Amino acid sequence: MFLEEIFCMSTSGVTVLLCVFSLLLLALRGQRRTRGTLPPGPRPWPLVGNLLQMGEQVHLSLTNLRVQYGDVLQVKMGSLVVVVLSGYSTVKEALVRQGEAFAGRPDFFSFSAIANGESMTFSEKYGETWVLHKKICRNALKTFSQAEARDSSASCLLEERICAEALEMVEALKEQGDEAGDEGIDPSILLVTSVANVVCALCFGKRYDYNDTEFLSIVNINTEVLRIFAGGNLADFFPIFRYLPSPSLRKMFQFINRMNEFMERNIKEHLDTFDRNCIRDITDALIAMCEDRDEDEEKATLSNSQIVRSVIEIFGAGFDTIITGLQWSILYLIKFPDIQAKIIQEIDNQVGTNRLPQFNDKPNMPYTEAFIYEVFRHSSYVPFTIPHCTTENITFNGYFIPKDTCVFINQYQVNHDMEIWGDPESFRPERFLTQSGNVNKTLTEKVMIFGMGIRRCLGDNFARLEIFVFLTTLLQRLNIENIPGQELDLSSTFALTMKPKHFRIKIAPRN
Ligand code: HEM
Which of 24, 163, 177, 366 is spaced 20 to 30 A from 192 at the CA atom? Predict the structure, then answer.
Protein backbone atom coordinates (compact mmCIF):
# COMPACT_ATOMS: atom_id res chain seq x y z
CA MET A 1 0.00 0.00 0.00
CA PHE A 2 2.79 2.46 0.93
CA LEU A 3 4.76 1.75 -2.23
CA GLU A 4 1.62 1.89 -4.35
CA GLU A 5 0.99 5.43 -3.06
CA ILE A 6 4.56 6.56 -3.42
CA PHE A 7 4.75 5.48 -7.06
CA CYS A 8 1.58 7.40 -7.84
CA MET A 9 3.49 10.65 -7.35
CA SER A 10 6.27 12.16 -9.40
CA THR A 11 9.64 11.00 -8.02
CA SER A 12 11.40 14.36 -8.05
CA GLY A 13 8.53 16.15 -6.27
CA VAL A 14 8.54 13.50 -3.61
CA THR A 15 12.32 13.70 -3.13
CA VAL A 16 12.24 17.46 -2.53
CA LEU A 17 9.32 17.19 -0.15
CA LEU A 18 10.93 14.37 1.77
CA CYS A 19 14.22 16.27 2.12
CA VAL A 20 12.46 19.33 3.51
CA PHE A 21 10.40 17.13 5.75
CA SER A 22 13.38 15.20 7.15
CA LEU A 23 15.28 18.45 7.89
CA LEU A 24 12.25 19.72 9.77
CA LEU A 25 12.04 16.48 11.69
CA LEU A 26 15.72 16.54 12.63
CA ALA A 27 15.31 20.09 13.89
CA LEU A 28 12.23 19.20 15.88
CA ARG A 29 13.88 16.10 17.31
CA GLY A 30 16.50 18.20 19.06
CA GLN A 31 13.78 20.29 20.67
CA ARG A 32 11.79 17.45 22.16
CA ARG A 33 11.76 17.88 25.94
CA THR A 34 10.96 15.03 28.25
CA ARG A 35 10.19 14.77 31.94
CA GLY A 36 11.73 11.36 32.55
CA THR A 37 13.20 8.32 30.90
CA LEU A 38 11.48 7.47 27.63
CA PRO A 39 10.74 3.80 26.88
CA PRO A 40 13.67 1.99 25.24
CA GLY A 41 13.61 0.83 21.62
CA PRO A 42 15.64 0.39 18.46
CA ARG A 43 17.40 3.47 17.08
CA PRO A 44 15.19 5.08 14.41
CA TRP A 45 16.46 6.07 10.97
CA PRO A 46 15.91 9.63 9.81
CA LEU A 47 12.59 10.06 8.06
CA VAL A 48 11.38 6.43 8.00
CA GLY A 49 12.01 5.81 11.70
CA ASN A 50 11.85 2.05 12.35
CA LEU A 51 9.37 1.31 9.54
CA LEU A 52 11.88 -0.71 7.51
CA GLN A 53 12.76 -2.86 10.53
CA MET A 54 9.08 -3.79 10.90
CA GLY A 55 9.00 -5.74 7.62
CA GLU A 56 5.71 -7.25 6.50
CA GLN A 57 4.89 -9.08 9.72
CA VAL A 58 4.69 -6.13 12.11
CA HIS A 59 3.20 -8.23 14.93
CA LEU A 60 6.11 -10.70 14.81
CA SER A 61 8.75 -7.93 14.62
CA LEU A 62 7.28 -6.12 17.62
CA THR A 63 6.97 -9.41 19.52
CA ASN A 64 10.69 -10.07 18.86
CA LEU A 65 11.65 -6.55 19.95
CA ARG A 66 9.94 -7.18 23.30
CA VAL A 67 12.57 -9.85 24.06
CA GLN A 68 15.26 -7.16 23.87
CA TYR A 69 13.45 -4.09 25.20
CA GLY A 70 10.74 -5.41 27.52
CA ASP A 71 6.99 -4.87 27.93
CA VAL A 72 7.10 -1.11 27.32
CA LEU A 73 9.08 -0.16 24.23
CA GLN A 74 9.12 2.66 21.75
CA VAL A 75 9.46 2.69 17.96
CA LYS A 76 9.00 5.32 15.29
CA MET A 77 6.67 4.66 12.38
CA GLY A 78 7.77 7.37 9.97
CA SER A 79 7.53 10.48 12.11
CA LEU A 80 5.02 8.97 14.52
CA VAL A 81 6.28 7.87 17.94
CA VAL A 82 4.53 4.66 19.00
CA VAL A 83 4.77 3.05 22.43
CA VAL A 84 4.15 -0.70 22.22
CA LEU A 85 2.77 -2.54 25.25
CA SER A 86 3.13 -6.32 25.64
CA GLY A 87 2.80 -8.85 28.48
CA TYR A 88 -0.58 -9.64 30.03
CA SER A 89 0.07 -7.88 33.40
CA THR A 90 1.51 -4.77 31.74
CA VAL A 91 -1.41 -4.51 29.30
CA LYS A 92 -3.91 -5.02 32.14
CA GLU A 93 -2.15 -2.40 34.27
CA ALA A 94 -2.41 0.09 31.40
CA LEU A 95 -5.90 -0.63 30.06
CA VAL A 96 -7.69 -1.48 33.29
CA ARG A 97 -5.90 0.01 36.32
CA GLN A 98 -4.72 3.14 34.52
CA GLY A 99 -7.46 2.88 31.91
CA GLU A 100 -8.33 6.56 31.56
CA ALA A 101 -4.74 7.54 30.81
CA PHE A 102 -4.66 5.07 27.88
CA ALA A 103 -8.24 5.50 26.62
CA GLY A 104 -7.66 7.99 23.78
CA ARG A 105 -7.42 7.34 20.03
CA PRO A 106 -4.58 8.86 17.98
CA ASP A 107 -5.38 11.66 15.62
CA PHE A 108 -4.87 9.49 12.50
CA PHE A 109 -5.81 11.00 9.16
CA SER A 110 -7.45 7.77 8.02
CA PHE A 111 -9.53 7.62 11.24
CA SER A 112 -10.94 11.06 10.44
CA ALA A 113 -12.35 9.64 7.19
CA ILE A 114 -14.77 7.51 9.16
CA ALA A 115 -18.06 9.15 10.19
CA ASN A 116 -16.74 12.64 9.38
CA GLY A 117 -14.27 12.50 12.24
CA GLU A 118 -17.00 11.98 14.84
CA SER A 119 -16.75 8.24 15.22
CA MET A 120 -17.09 6.81 18.73
CA THR A 121 -14.61 4.06 17.88
CA PHE A 122 -12.01 5.99 15.93
CA SER A 123 -12.01 9.69 16.48
CA GLU A 124 -14.28 11.14 19.16
CA LYS A 125 -12.08 12.64 21.94
CA TYR A 126 -12.07 10.63 25.14
CA GLY A 127 -14.17 12.48 27.75
CA GLU A 128 -17.67 12.75 29.21
CA THR A 129 -19.45 12.82 25.83
CA TRP A 130 -17.56 9.76 24.62
CA VAL A 131 -18.31 7.86 27.85
CA LEU A 132 -22.01 8.66 27.39
CA HIS A 133 -21.94 7.65 23.73
CA LYS A 134 -20.39 4.27 24.52
CA LYS A 135 -22.84 3.73 27.39
CA ILE A 136 -25.80 4.41 25.09
CA CYS A 137 -24.48 1.98 22.48
CA ARG A 138 -23.86 -0.69 25.16
CA ASN A 139 -27.38 -0.23 26.57
CA ALA A 140 -28.89 -0.34 23.08
CA LEU A 141 -27.17 -3.68 22.41
CA LYS A 142 -28.46 -4.93 25.77
CA THR A 143 -32.01 -3.72 25.05
CA PHE A 144 -31.94 -5.42 21.67
CA SER A 145 -30.57 -8.68 23.08
CA GLN A 146 -33.61 -8.76 25.41
CA ALA A 147 -36.14 -8.13 22.61
CA GLU A 148 -38.64 -10.96 22.24
CA ALA A 149 -38.52 -13.47 19.39
CA ARG A 150 -41.25 -13.01 16.76
CA ASP A 151 -42.41 -16.37 15.62
CA SER A 152 -40.29 -19.24 16.80
CA SER A 153 -39.23 -21.12 19.88
CA ALA A 154 -36.08 -19.01 20.19
CA SER A 155 -35.43 -17.34 23.54
CA CYS A 156 -34.98 -13.87 21.98
CA LEU A 157 -34.97 -12.02 18.67
CA LEU A 158 -31.17 -12.07 18.48
CA GLU A 159 -31.11 -15.86 18.77
CA GLU A 160 -33.94 -16.22 16.25
CA ARG A 161 -32.08 -14.14 13.65
CA ILE A 162 -28.67 -15.79 14.15
CA CYS A 163 -30.04 -19.36 14.18
CA ALA A 164 -32.13 -18.75 11.04
CA GLU A 165 -29.15 -17.38 9.13
CA ALA A 166 -26.82 -20.16 10.30
CA LEU A 167 -29.30 -22.75 9.01
CA GLU A 168 -29.63 -20.91 5.70
CA MET A 169 -25.85 -20.92 5.30
CA VAL A 170 -25.55 -24.64 6.09
CA GLU A 171 -28.24 -25.46 3.50
CA ALA A 172 -26.43 -23.38 0.87
CA LEU A 173 -23.08 -24.99 1.75
CA LYS A 174 -24.64 -28.45 1.44
CA GLU A 175 -26.09 -27.65 -1.97
CA GLN A 176 -22.82 -26.22 -3.29
CA GLY A 177 -20.80 -29.02 -1.68
CA ASP A 178 -22.96 -31.67 -3.40
CA GLU A 179 -22.33 -30.09 -6.79
CA ALA A 180 -18.59 -29.59 -6.24
CA GLY A 181 -17.77 -33.13 -5.04
CA ASP A 182 -14.06 -33.82 -4.45
CA GLU A 183 -13.02 -30.44 -5.87
CA GLY A 184 -14.58 -28.83 -2.81
CA ILE A 185 -15.70 -25.24 -2.36
CA ASP A 186 -14.24 -22.01 -1.02
CA PRO A 187 -16.42 -21.38 2.07
CA SER A 188 -15.50 -17.67 2.28
CA ILE A 189 -18.08 -16.38 -0.18
CA LEU A 190 -21.00 -17.94 1.66
CA LEU A 191 -19.59 -16.89 5.03
CA VAL A 192 -19.42 -13.28 3.86
CA THR A 193 -23.02 -13.18 2.64
CA SER A 194 -24.37 -15.06 5.68
CA VAL A 195 -22.61 -12.90 8.25
CA ALA A 196 -23.55 -9.75 6.27
CA ASN A 197 -27.15 -10.87 6.47
CA VAL A 198 -26.90 -11.39 10.22
CA VAL A 199 -25.52 -7.85 10.58
CA CYS A 200 -28.29 -6.42 8.35
CA ALA A 201 -30.89 -8.36 10.35
CA LEU A 202 -29.47 -7.15 13.67
CA CYS A 203 -29.06 -3.54 12.60
CA PHE A 204 -32.08 -3.10 10.31
CA GLY A 205 -34.34 -6.08 10.88
CA LYS A 206 -33.96 -7.01 7.20
CA ARG A 207 -32.71 -10.14 5.54
CA TYR A 208 -31.66 -10.00 1.90
CA ASP A 209 -31.61 -12.62 -0.79
CA TYR A 210 -27.99 -13.72 -1.38
CA ASN A 211 -28.27 -12.38 -4.95
CA ASP A 212 -29.85 -9.00 -4.14
CA THR A 213 -27.81 -6.34 -5.95
CA GLU A 214 -28.07 -3.64 -3.26
CA PHE A 215 -27.00 -6.16 -0.62
CA LEU A 216 -24.06 -7.42 -2.69
CA SER A 217 -22.91 -3.88 -3.37
CA ILE A 218 -22.91 -3.06 0.38
CA VAL A 219 -21.00 -6.27 1.11
CA ASN A 220 -18.40 -5.32 -1.52
CA ILE A 221 -18.11 -1.76 -0.30
CA ASN A 222 -17.54 -2.90 3.27
CA THR A 223 -14.87 -5.37 2.16
CA GLU A 224 -13.13 -2.71 0.06
CA VAL A 225 -13.15 -0.09 2.84
CA LEU A 226 -11.64 -2.61 5.24
CA ARG A 227 -9.03 -3.65 2.69
CA ILE A 228 -7.87 -0.07 2.14
CA PHE A 229 -8.07 0.78 5.82
CA ALA A 230 -6.16 -2.35 6.85
CA GLY A 231 -3.32 -1.58 4.43
CA GLY A 232 -2.31 1.35 6.64
CA ASN A 233 -1.97 4.86 5.36
CA LEU A 234 1.08 6.90 4.60
CA ALA A 235 -0.70 10.03 5.81
CA ASP A 236 -0.93 8.52 9.32
CA PHE A 237 2.83 8.11 9.60
CA PHE A 238 4.02 11.02 7.43
CA PRO A 239 1.68 14.01 7.99
CA ILE A 240 2.93 15.70 4.81
CA PHE A 241 1.05 13.10 2.76
CA ARG A 242 -2.21 14.57 4.08
CA TYR A 243 -1.68 17.42 1.67
CA LEU A 244 -0.84 15.30 -1.38
CA PRO A 245 -3.30 13.42 -3.58
CA SER A 246 -3.85 9.85 -2.41
CA PRO A 247 -5.78 7.54 -4.78
CA SER A 248 -6.48 4.95 -2.10
CA LEU A 249 -7.78 7.49 0.42
CA ARG A 250 -9.96 9.09 -2.26
CA LYS A 251 -11.40 5.68 -3.09
CA MET A 252 -12.00 5.00 0.59
CA PHE A 253 -13.86 8.32 1.03
CA GLN A 254 -16.06 7.46 -2.00
CA PHE A 255 -16.86 4.01 -0.62
CA ILE A 256 -17.63 5.42 2.81
CA ASN A 257 -20.02 7.98 1.29
CA ARG A 258 -21.93 5.26 -0.55
CA MET A 259 -22.11 3.16 2.59
CA ASN A 260 -23.41 6.17 4.55
CA GLU A 261 -26.18 6.76 2.00
CA PHE A 262 -27.39 3.16 2.45
CA MET A 263 -27.29 3.49 6.24
CA GLU A 264 -29.00 6.89 6.31
CA ARG A 265 -31.84 5.59 4.12
CA ASN A 266 -32.44 2.66 6.44
CA ILE A 267 -32.21 4.74 9.59
CA LYS A 268 -34.63 7.36 8.25
CA GLU A 269 -37.15 4.58 7.59
CA HIS A 270 -36.71 3.49 11.21
CA LEU A 271 -37.15 6.99 12.62
CA ASP A 272 -40.37 7.36 10.59
CA THR A 273 -41.87 4.05 11.72
CA PHE A 274 -40.46 3.79 15.25
CA ASP A 275 -42.70 2.15 17.88
CA ARG A 276 -41.32 1.97 21.43
CA ASN A 277 -43.35 -1.18 22.12
CA CYS A 278 -41.88 -3.07 19.22
CA ILE A 279 -38.06 -3.04 19.11
CA ARG A 280 -37.22 -4.57 15.74
CA ASP A 281 -33.44 -4.26 15.77
CA ILE A 282 -30.39 -2.38 17.08
CA THR A 283 -31.38 0.82 15.26
CA ASP A 284 -34.73 0.84 17.11
CA ALA A 285 -32.94 0.10 20.38
CA LEU A 286 -30.65 3.11 19.80
CA ILE A 287 -33.59 5.36 18.93
CA ALA A 288 -35.37 4.16 22.08
CA MET A 289 -32.34 5.08 24.20
CA CYS A 290 -32.50 8.61 22.80
CA GLU A 291 -36.26 9.08 22.54
CA ASP A 292 -36.61 11.08 25.74
CA ARG A 293 -34.13 13.70 24.63
CA ASP A 294 -36.72 16.22 23.41
CA GLU A 295 -38.68 16.06 26.67
CA ASP A 296 -35.67 16.30 28.95
CA GLU A 297 -33.19 18.75 27.50
CA GLU A 298 -30.93 18.46 30.54
CA LYS A 299 -30.35 14.82 29.78
CA ALA A 300 -27.54 14.49 27.24
CA THR A 301 -28.22 11.89 24.55
CA LEU A 302 -27.34 11.30 20.91
CA SER A 303 -28.39 13.45 17.98
CA ASN A 304 -29.95 11.77 14.95
CA SER A 305 -26.65 11.97 13.12
CA GLN A 306 -24.86 10.33 16.06
CA ILE A 307 -27.42 7.51 15.94
CA VAL A 308 -26.62 7.06 12.25
CA ARG A 309 -22.90 6.92 13.04
CA SER A 310 -23.37 4.47 15.90
CA VAL A 311 -25.28 2.07 13.67
CA ILE A 312 -22.57 2.38 11.00
CA GLU A 313 -19.95 1.48 13.59
CA ILE A 314 -21.80 -1.51 14.96
CA PHE A 315 -22.48 -2.64 11.38
CA GLY A 316 -18.80 -2.35 10.42
CA ALA A 317 -17.43 -3.83 13.64
CA GLY A 318 -19.52 -6.98 13.62
CA PHE A 319 -18.83 -7.95 10.05
CA ASP A 320 -15.27 -8.66 9.04
CA THR A 321 -14.19 -9.71 12.56
CA ILE A 322 -16.81 -12.47 12.70
CA ILE A 323 -16.30 -13.66 9.11
CA THR A 324 -12.57 -13.96 9.74
CA GLY A 325 -13.18 -15.83 13.03
CA LEU A 326 -15.36 -18.34 11.17
CA GLN A 327 -12.85 -18.73 8.33
CA TRP A 328 -10.09 -19.57 10.83
CA SER A 329 -12.38 -21.94 12.75
CA ILE A 330 -13.19 -23.90 9.59
CA LEU A 331 -9.52 -24.09 8.65
CA TYR A 332 -8.61 -25.52 12.08
CA LEU A 333 -11.53 -27.98 11.88
CA ILE A 334 -10.26 -29.50 8.64
CA LYS A 335 -6.62 -29.33 9.73
CA PHE A 336 -7.41 -31.27 12.94
CA PRO A 337 -10.18 -33.82 12.15
CA ASP A 338 -9.84 -35.43 15.60
CA ILE A 339 -10.75 -32.10 17.20
CA GLN A 340 -13.72 -31.79 14.82
CA ALA A 341 -14.83 -35.28 15.91
CA LYS A 342 -14.79 -34.24 19.58
CA ILE A 343 -16.97 -31.21 18.86
CA ILE A 344 -19.40 -33.34 16.87
CA GLN A 345 -19.56 -35.76 19.80
CA GLU A 346 -20.41 -32.90 22.13
CA ILE A 347 -23.13 -31.64 19.74
CA ASP A 348 -24.62 -35.13 19.52
CA ASN A 349 -24.65 -35.50 23.32
CA GLN A 350 -25.97 -32.07 24.15
CA VAL A 351 -28.17 -31.02 21.22
CA GLY A 352 -28.94 -34.22 19.28
CA THR A 353 -30.47 -33.98 15.82
CA ASN A 354 -34.09 -33.01 16.49
CA ARG A 355 -33.52 -29.34 17.18
CA LEU A 356 -31.05 -26.60 16.27
CA PRO A 357 -28.22 -25.51 18.59
CA GLN A 358 -29.20 -22.51 20.74
CA PHE A 359 -27.49 -19.92 22.91
CA ASN A 360 -28.18 -21.78 26.14
CA ASP A 361 -26.30 -24.86 24.87
CA LYS A 362 -23.04 -22.95 25.06
CA PRO A 363 -22.39 -23.28 28.82
CA ASN A 364 -23.00 -27.03 28.52
CA MET A 365 -20.50 -27.49 25.70
CA PRO A 366 -17.10 -26.70 27.24
CA TYR A 367 -15.03 -28.43 24.54
CA THR A 368 -16.62 -26.35 21.77
CA GLU A 369 -16.12 -23.20 23.81
CA ALA A 370 -12.49 -24.17 24.46
CA PHE A 371 -12.04 -24.70 20.70
CA ILE A 372 -13.29 -21.18 19.93
CA TYR A 373 -10.93 -19.66 22.52
CA GLU A 374 -8.03 -21.67 21.07
CA VAL A 375 -8.87 -20.39 17.55
CA PHE A 376 -8.81 -16.80 18.90
CA ARG A 377 -5.53 -17.40 20.74
CA HIS A 378 -3.60 -19.44 18.19
CA SER A 379 -4.54 -17.42 15.11
CA SER A 380 -4.56 -14.09 17.01
CA TYR A 381 -6.22 -12.74 13.91
CA VAL A 382 -6.67 -9.29 15.50
CA PRO A 383 -2.97 -8.93 16.43
CA PHE A 384 -3.28 -5.42 17.85
CA THR A 385 -6.24 -3.55 19.28
CA ILE A 386 -7.28 -0.41 17.41
CA PRO A 387 -4.44 2.04 18.27
CA HIS A 388 -4.87 3.89 21.58
CA CYS A 389 -3.29 7.14 22.72
CA THR A 390 -2.48 8.63 26.08
CA THR A 391 -4.91 11.24 27.40
CA GLU A 392 -2.38 12.77 29.87
CA ASN A 393 1.36 12.79 30.66
CA ILE A 394 2.02 9.59 32.53
CA THR A 395 4.86 7.69 34.16
CA PHE A 396 4.25 4.04 33.45
CA ASN A 397 6.48 1.14 34.60
CA GLY A 398 9.15 3.78 35.29
CA TYR A 399 8.97 5.37 31.82
CA PHE A 400 7.63 8.78 30.91
CA ILE A 401 4.96 8.71 28.18
CA PRO A 402 3.76 12.18 27.09
CA LYS A 403 0.08 13.02 26.50
CA ASP A 404 -1.17 12.16 22.97
CA THR A 405 1.41 9.41 22.39
CA CYS A 406 0.14 6.66 20.10
CA VAL A 407 0.04 3.28 21.90
CA PHE A 408 -0.13 -0.16 20.25
CA ILE A 409 -1.36 -3.09 22.37
CA ASN A 410 0.29 -6.31 21.18
CA GLN A 411 -2.49 -8.89 21.58
CA TYR A 412 -0.55 -11.39 19.48
CA GLN A 413 2.35 -11.37 21.96
CA VAL A 414 0.03 -11.97 24.95
CA ASN A 415 -1.58 -14.90 23.11
CA HIS A 416 1.83 -16.44 22.37
CA ASP A 417 3.57 -15.72 25.66
CA MET A 418 5.57 -18.82 26.73
CA GLU A 419 5.13 -17.91 30.38
CA ILE A 420 1.34 -18.13 30.19
CA TRP A 421 0.85 -20.89 27.64
CA GLY A 422 3.95 -23.12 27.87
CA ASP A 423 3.48 -24.42 24.31
CA PRO A 424 1.88 -21.43 22.51
CA GLU A 425 2.52 -22.83 19.02
CA SER A 426 0.50 -26.03 19.61
CA PHE A 427 -3.20 -25.93 18.82
CA ARG A 428 -4.74 -27.56 21.91
CA PRO A 429 -8.32 -26.64 22.96
CA GLU A 430 -7.85 -28.90 26.03
CA ARG A 431 -5.55 -26.29 27.54
CA PHE A 432 -8.71 -24.33 28.49
CA LEU A 433 -10.39 -27.22 30.31
CA THR A 434 -10.04 -27.93 34.03
CA GLN A 435 -9.57 -31.50 35.30
CA SER A 436 -13.32 -31.77 35.79
CA GLY A 437 -13.88 -30.74 32.16
CA ASN A 438 -15.14 -27.19 32.75
CA VAL A 439 -13.86 -24.09 30.99
CA ASN A 440 -10.94 -22.57 32.94
CA LYS A 441 -12.10 -18.95 33.22
CA THR A 442 -8.79 -17.75 34.69
CA LEU A 443 -7.06 -18.86 31.51
CA THR A 444 -9.71 -17.79 28.95
CA GLU A 445 -9.51 -14.29 30.46
CA LYS A 446 -5.90 -14.12 29.26
CA VAL A 447 -6.84 -14.65 25.59
CA MET A 448 -6.63 -11.19 24.05
CA ILE A 449 -8.79 -10.62 20.98
CA PHE A 450 -11.36 -8.03 22.13
CA GLY A 451 -8.99 -5.64 23.95
CA MET A 452 -9.75 -4.88 27.61
CA GLY A 453 -10.83 -2.05 29.91
CA ILE A 454 -12.56 1.16 28.86
CA ARG A 455 -12.06 0.57 25.12
CA ARG A 456 -12.98 -3.12 25.19
CA CYS A 457 -15.04 -4.33 22.23
CA LEU A 458 -18.77 -3.73 22.67
CA GLY A 459 -19.80 -6.85 20.80
CA ASP A 460 -17.73 -9.60 22.43
CA ASN A 461 -20.77 -11.49 23.78
CA PHE A 462 -22.63 -11.15 20.48
CA ALA A 463 -19.55 -12.33 18.62
CA ARG A 464 -18.93 -15.42 20.75
CA LEU A 465 -22.60 -16.44 20.56
CA GLU A 466 -22.71 -15.93 16.80
CA ILE A 467 -19.57 -17.95 16.16
CA PHE A 468 -20.82 -20.70 18.51
CA VAL A 469 -24.20 -21.00 16.74
CA PHE A 470 -22.69 -20.94 13.21
CA LEU A 471 -20.11 -23.62 14.03
CA THR A 472 -22.43 -25.96 15.91
CA THR A 473 -25.19 -25.68 13.29
CA LEU A 474 -22.61 -26.45 10.61
CA LEU A 475 -21.22 -29.53 12.37
CA GLN A 476 -24.65 -30.77 13.43
CA ARG A 477 -25.54 -31.24 9.78
CA LEU A 478 -22.32 -31.53 7.78
CA ASN A 479 -18.92 -33.18 7.86
CA ILE A 480 -16.20 -30.94 6.49
CA GLU A 481 -12.78 -32.11 5.39
CA ASN A 482 -9.69 -31.13 3.48
CA ILE A 483 -9.70 -31.77 -0.27
CA PRO A 484 -7.17 -34.27 -1.64
CA GLY A 485 -3.66 -32.85 -2.06
CA GLN A 486 -4.30 -29.44 -0.47
CA GLU A 487 -1.56 -28.22 1.94
CA LEU A 488 -3.16 -26.39 4.84
CA ASP A 489 -1.17 -23.33 5.88
CA LEU A 490 -1.90 -21.76 9.27
CA SER A 491 0.31 -18.71 8.70
CA SER A 492 -1.09 -15.27 7.87
CA THR A 493 0.02 -11.85 6.70
CA PHE A 494 -0.13 -8.83 8.99
CA ALA A 495 -3.33 -6.73 8.83
CA LEU A 496 -5.90 -5.18 11.14
CA THR A 497 -7.74 -8.51 10.89
CA MET A 498 -5.46 -11.23 9.50
CA LYS A 499 -7.09 -13.64 7.04
CA PRO A 500 -6.11 -17.27 6.52
CA LYS A 501 -4.70 -18.17 3.09
CA HIS A 502 -7.39 -19.33 0.64
CA PHE A 503 -8.49 -22.93 1.13
CA ARG A 504 -11.24 -25.23 -0.11
CA ILE A 505 -13.33 -27.69 1.85
CA LYS A 506 -15.09 -30.90 0.93
CA ILE A 507 -18.57 -31.22 2.35
CA ALA A 508 -20.63 -34.29 3.10
CA PRO A 509 -23.99 -34.43 4.90
CA ARG A 510 -23.88 -36.23 8.26
CA ASN A 511 -25.96 -39.39 8.70
C1 HEM B 1 -14.97 -11.93 16.80
C2 HEM B 1 -15.47 -10.71 16.56
C3 HEM B 1 -14.88 -9.43 17.09
C4 HEM B 1 -13.59 -9.15 17.44
C5 HEM B 1 -12.38 -10.07 17.37
C6 HEM B 1 -13.56 -7.77 17.86
C7 HEM B 1 -12.41 -7.12 18.31
C8 HEM B 1 -12.38 -5.79 18.69
C9 HEM B 1 -11.20 -5.08 19.09
C10 HEM B 1 -9.79 -5.66 19.18
C11 HEM B 1 -11.56 -3.80 19.38
C12 HEM B 1 -10.62 -2.66 19.81
C13 HEM B 1 -10.41 -2.64 21.30
C14 HEM B 1 -9.42 -1.56 21.69
O15 HEM B 1 -9.21 -0.61 20.95
O16 HEM B 1 -8.80 -1.69 22.76
C17 HEM B 1 -12.98 -3.69 19.15
C18 HEM B 1 -13.70 -2.53 19.33
C19 HEM B 1 -15.05 -2.43 19.09
N20 HEM B 1 -15.91 -3.45 18.73
FE21 HEM B 1 -15.39 -5.37 18.35
N22 HEM B 1 -14.82 -7.24 17.77
C23 HEM B 1 -15.66 -8.23 17.31
C24 HEM B 1 -17.02 -8.12 17.09
C25 HEM B 1 -17.78 -7.01 17.35
C26 HEM B 1 -19.23 -6.93 17.20
C27 HEM B 1 -20.13 -8.09 16.77
C28 HEM B 1 -19.59 -5.65 17.52
C29 HEM B 1 -20.96 -5.02 17.56
C30 HEM B 1 -22.06 -5.65 17.84
C31 HEM B 1 -18.37 -4.93 17.88
C32 HEM B 1 -18.33 -3.61 18.26
C33 HEM B 1 -17.18 -2.92 18.61
C34 HEM B 1 -17.13 -1.49 18.92
C35 HEM B 1 -18.31 -0.52 18.89
C36 HEM B 1 -15.79 -1.19 19.24
C37 HEM B 1 -15.22 0.17 19.63
C38 HEM B 1 -15.03 0.28 21.12
C39 HEM B 1 -14.33 1.57 21.54
O40 HEM B 1 -13.69 2.23 20.73
O41 HEM B 1 -14.43 1.91 22.74
N42 HEM B 1 -17.30 -5.78 17.76
N43 HEM B 1 -13.47 -4.92 18.75
Answer: 366
